[in-house]
Write a structure and sequence with these properties.
Elements lengths: L2 E11 L3 E10 L2 E12 L4 E6 L5 H20 L4 H4 L2 H18 L5 H10 L1 H9 L5 H24 L5 H20 L24 H17 L3 H20 L3 H5 L6 E4 L4 E8 L2 E7 L1 H17 L29 H9 L10 H13 L4 H8 L3 H8 L5 H8 L4 H26 L1
Antiparallel strand pairs: 1-2, 2-3, 3-4, 5-6, 6-7
Helix pairs in contact: 3-4, 8-9, 8-12, 9-11, 9-13, 14-17
Length: 431
C-alpha cells in the first residue's frame, strides 16, 4: 500500500493545462507519478491524464505533446480522459462482432485470430501516439502510420513488411474503421491508405500440368491411410475442381455452405449461391461440378459417420476434419506434394490461378467477355486489362466487342438478380 505524502502543481499552459507531481511512499521508498490536469471549459471540470515520464523535464515535454494531440477534442467538449482509453474497448466490441460472424458461419476461427493479430500493430501505434482519442488517432493513422510501421518493423526485425502483408494489414484496419464509422458512429471518416502493388503471380495454371495435377491428387488420396489427411486432401482437390469449373474466387469457395448448393431434378439443373468480396450471386453450374461436390459430401458422410457428421451442423462445404468451420487447407502446404510431383512451385501458382485458368480458357474458346464477367462476378474492363493480351486480334474483336443479345440481357439483369438474392437471404435469416 502506498501513501500520498506530497502534491506539487506547476502551471505549464495558463488557464488550460497543469502538471501535477504526486509523491508516494511505500515499503520500497518514494514513488513519483506525473499527471496532466486539463480544464475542459465546456464541461466545466478537470480531467486528468497519466504521463509515462519519470522526471519533471520529460514530464513537461510529454505534457505539451499530449495537450497538442487532444486540443481538438477539448474544443468540442469531448471526454478526453475516457476517449484516450477507448481503442481497446472498440477493438473488444469489434472482436465480439467478428465472433458473432464466426458463429453464423461467415468466417472461421482462424480468420478471427488473424484479424485480432493484425490489430495489434494499430494498438502499438496508438501507444506510440500516447493513446490519443479515437478521432485524432484516425487523423494520425492516415498521415503517419505507414512510415511509423516501417521504422517499427525495421527496429524489431531489421526487415521490411512485404507488400502482401502490408495490404492484408491495411484491409483489416479499414474493416475495423468502417465498423467504427458505420455501426458505432465513433469516427467521422475512414482513413485511407494506398494499397501496395503486389508482384503478380496469378497467371493461369498451365494446361499441360492440370491433368497431371488431378492424377497426382487422386493417387495421393487413394494411397493415403491417414483419414485426417485424406479428408483434408479431398477438400483441397474439390476446391481446385470447383474453381476450375466455375471460375469462383478463393473467398467464395471458402464461404460455400451445403445450403448454397441446389439441384433441380425435374429440370436437371444445378445452381450455386456464391457470397464473398461483399458480393452475392447465383450461377448455373454443370452437373459435372455438382457431382464433384456431391462426391465430397458422400465422402464426409461415410468417414464422418463415426463422430456424427451432418450437413446442418457442418454447414461449411469445405469444413476440416472434426470441425464445423471451413478447412485451413487452403494454404500452400496442402498442395505442395502434388505440385512437386508435376514439377511446379506452389508459391508461383496459388489457388486463384484456377479462377484465371477458367477465364482464360473461356476467352480462348470465344466466349464473350460480357458473359464471362457476369458469370465470374467481375467486369469486362478487368477481364480486358488482365487477359486481353492472350487473345489474337481476331479473337479479341470477337470476345470484347459486338456483344451478343444473350450477354447484354444477362448483364442488364445482374443488378435485379443481386437484389432478389439479397431479399431472399434476408427472408431466410428472419425465418
Amino acid at each position: 500500500m502506498k501513501n500520498l505524502i506530497q502534491k506539487t502543481i506547476r502551471e505549464i499552459i495558463p488557464g488550460s493545462a497543469v502538471l501535477v507531481l504526486l509523491t508516494y511512499e511505500n515499503k520500497s521508498g518514494l514513488v513519483f507519478s506525473y499527471r496532466l490536469r486539463i480544464r475542459n471549459q465546456q464541461k466545466s471540470k478537470y480531467q486528468y491524464l497519466s504521463l509515462k515520464a519519470t522526471n519533471e523535464r520529460d514530464a513537461v515535454l510529454e505534457a505539451f505533446e499530449v495537450y497538442k494531440d487532444i486540443a481538438d477534442s477539448l474544443k468540442k467538449g469531448a471526454p478526453v480522459a475516457a476517449d484516450r482509453k477507448k481503442l481497446g474497448t472498440y477493438i473488444k466490441i469489434f472482436m465480439d462482432h467478428m465472433e458473432i460472424r464466426r458463429k453464423n458461419g461467415y468466417c472461421t476461427q482462424h480468420r478471427v485470430v488473424c484479424v485480432r493479430q493484425l490489430l495489434v500493430s494499430l494498438e502499438n501505434f496508438a501507444k506510440y501516439k500516447r493513446n490519443i482519442d479515437i478521432r485524432n488517432l484516425v487523423t494520425a493513422y492516415e498521415g503517419e502510420y505507414a512510415d511509423w510501421r516501417d521504422k517499427q518493423l525495421a527496429n524489431l526485425t531489421g526487415k521490411k513488411l512485404t507488400a502482401r502483408s502490408r495490404n492484408n494489414e491495411y484491409q483489416v484496419h479499414r474493416q475495423f474503421f468502417q465498423y467504427l464509422k458505420n455501426k458505432l458512429n465513433a469516427i467521422e471518416y475512414v482513413p485511407s491508405l494506398l494499397k501496395v502493388k503486389v508482384e503478380q503471380t496469378n497467371h493461369p495454371f498451365p494446361q499441360e500440368k492440370y491433368n497431371a495435377l488431378l492424377k497426382a491428387s487422386r493417387d495421393a488420396i487413394n494411397d493415403c491411410v491417414n483419414y485426417k489427411t485424406k479428408w483434408n486432401w479431398m477438400v483441397m482437390r474439390t476446391v481446385i475442381l470447383l474453381m476450375h469449373g466455375t471460375g469462383c474466387r478463393v473467398t467464395e469457395a471458402k464461404n460455400l455452405r451445403w445450403g448454397d448448393i441446389k439441384h433441380n431434378k425435374r429440370r436437371d439443373l444445378s445452381e450455386i449461391y456464391f457470397h464473398g468480396k461483399g458480393k452475392e450471386r447465383t450461377v448455373t453450374v454443370s452437373n459435372r461440378v455438382y457431382g464433384y461436390l456431391m462426391d465430397l459430401l458422400e465422402f464426409k458422410q461415410e468417414y464422418g459417420s463415426e463422430w456424427g457428421f451432418n450437413e446442418t451442423e457442418y454447414q461449411m462445404a469445405f469444413s476440416s476434419w472434426k470441425m464445423t468451420e471451413m478447412s485451413k487447407q487452403f494454404s500452400s502446404w496442402g498442395r505442395r506434394d502434388w505440385y512437386k510431383k508435376i514439377g511446379l512451385d506452389e508459391k508461383e501458382y496459388p489457388l486463384v490461378c484456377f479462377r484465371h485458368k477458367f477465364i482464360s480458357d473461356a476467352l480462348r474458346q470465344g466466349t464473350h467477355a460480357l458473359q464471362i464477367a457476369w458469370y465470374t462476378g467481375t467486369s469486362v474492363a478487368m477481364i480486358q486489362k488482365t487477359y486481353g493480351s492472350i487473345t489474337s486480334p481476331e479473337l479479341f474483336k470477337q470476345v470484347f466487342s459486338n456483344a451478343p443479345e444473350e450477354a447484354l440481357e444477362r448483364a442488364a439483369r445482374t443488378k435485379w438478380f443481386d437484389e432478389q438474392l439479397k431479399q431472399n437471404r434476408e427472408r431466410k435469416e428472419i425465418k
